[in-house]
Amino acid sequence: MLFAYIQLALSMALVGMNISIGKEIVSHVPVFLFSELRFLLAMVILLPLLALRGEWKTSWKKEEGSVLFWQSFFGVFLFSICMLYGVRWTTATAAGIITSTVPACIALFSFWLLKEKLQVNNVVAIILSVCGIALITFTGGAGAQTLASMLGNLLVFLAVVSEALFTIFAKRLSGKITPFQMTAAINVISFAMFLPFAVWEGIRFDWGLVPAHIWWLLVYYAVTASVLSFFFWYNGVAKVEASKAGLFTGMMPISAALVAVLFLNEAFTWLHGIGMLLVLASIFVGTHQTRQKGTALER
Q1: How far is residue 122's CA from residue 244's CA, in Å, rounded to a whole number?
Q2: What's the angle, vertex CA 291, arms to CA 136 and CA 162, rounded to 5?
Q3: How confident is the model over 268-299, as pLDDT tens digits?
């Protein structure tokens, strides 16, 4: 179980680090084109490995295909669009703090869709998370929040909802297909979803304007976000309850804030600090409840 926890923590730490890296990439490459290139690189890595591992799957059950499609749509397509456009208009620091609400969202969806128990502590955690978001979104940071930054924060929160649904769908497939098969399938489906939008952007894009270091960041993003983070998450979530796995998404704001402050020179204000304390309090409350009482996953 400890190894599963480590995999979940590593997966979300990589996602959090990539919030800042994605912000840097989309300042030079359009969102849809960047996403398409990311999945193309991931497929070049994953498909040969899938065959070498002897896990190539030629036929899929209708239920598997349906769940994979919706997992790709919410957890990759909408998540990528909302997160990458969101960080264009808000700071990576604020985005990282808002992603702290993923555990609360997963707890709600686990209650509604997986019929896991929702205790009083979960409700308290959700309230704390909402208060943290409100503080970040509707109060000033280094200055007054603009309409664009508020829209950016909203898009990041929609990405949070998409990430929660991603976990729910992943739990429904655990034990039915292997984590490596799921990782490869998600990248192939996502590649197809982004393709028409990426072609439209690519035709109008001046490829020569992209600095060399951005291409290296894109390769790093593809390996960590499309291969490693998916694989670690699928391995971990197969072994624990969805609501418990959701608690490890608290690694996202920690790694996101560290990268934003250390490498992007973003300011970390006292309002950001209060917002983070509120959402970290929600994570603590949820963790405490899970350790004390646990939840029985119903299928």
Answers
A1: 11
A2: 40
A3: 777 767 877 877 777 677 656 444 444 443 33
